[in-house]
Amino acid sequence: MPEILLGVSLLLFFIQALNLTLGMLSIVLAHITFSIGFVAVIVRARLSGMDESIFEAARDLGASPWETFRYVTFPLILPGVVAGGLMAFTLSIDDFVITFFTAGVGVSTLPLHIYSMIKIAVTPEVNAVSTLLMLLTLTMIVLASRFAPDVLKGKT
Fold first, then answer.
1. Domains of the chain, with CATH numbers?
2. Nearest alpha-carbon partner for 68 in 60, 58, 78, 57
3. Position 36 confidence tier, pLDDT thresholds 50, 70, 90
4. Whole-number Å distance between alpha carbons of 136 and 91
5. By CB neighbour count within 10 A (0-12 exposed, 13-18 middle, 19+ buried), where does 38 fall?
6. What does residue 132 show for φ and ψ, rounded to 5 degrees?
7. Distances (CA, A) of 56 to 65, 67, 152
8. How far apart are CA 29 and CA 35, in angstroms?
9. pTM value?
């Protein structure tokens, strides 16, 4: 139910307030809108666990605010950024309802295409696409678990 409300409200906002033609841009804006909260919570959790003395040490050693962010803050929050990105990707690749409301005529994303394929019957093509999605997700999990220890140790 919340996805339906968000989809309808974004549809009305894009059409009435922004006078935006529905299409790929409206889909991207809608997905950013509902994913940004998940990413922010994950990155904020990573930031809250950081020791302030690290940043003070960087400033004491003459680092500019940009250098402090680039060499101290970003490497420390990188696991949170990666986790947030994976969460946003997972939510977006699976979302049908918001995409359905914010897609324009002639715009087809994978969830919309799968939905149009299964209206009549589940075909071998749908099974193949589902298998590919599962393999993609499994590959992302394996890569994340493979490189996560290196990122956490500061290696890239």
1. 2-153 (1.10.3720.10)
2. 58
3. very high
4. 14
5. middle
6. -65, -40
7. 11, 13, 21
8. 10
9. 0.72
Cα–Cα dist 107/109, whole Å: 7
Convert the pLDDT of each residue in 47-96 to its tens digit: 887 888 888 888 888 889 899 899 988 888 888 888 888 888 888 877 88
Q: How wide is the angle at C-alpha 109 spanned by C-alphas 105 and 111, nearest 5°?
A: 120
Give me 89's structure tokens.
Answer: 């990707």
φ and ψ at 95, to 5 degrees? -75, 130
Residue 12 carries which side chain, given as an amino acid letter?
Answer: L
Are 90 and 137 in contact by the 8 Å Cβ rule? The answer is yes
CA distance 7 to 92: 13
Amino acid type, 143 = L
Cα–Cα distance for residue pair 130/114, rounded to 1 Å: 9
Q: Retrieve residue 71's tokens.
A: 């060499």
Q: How many helices (H) and strands (E) does the chain have?
A: 8, 0
Contacts of 52 (CB under 8 A, 6+ apart): none
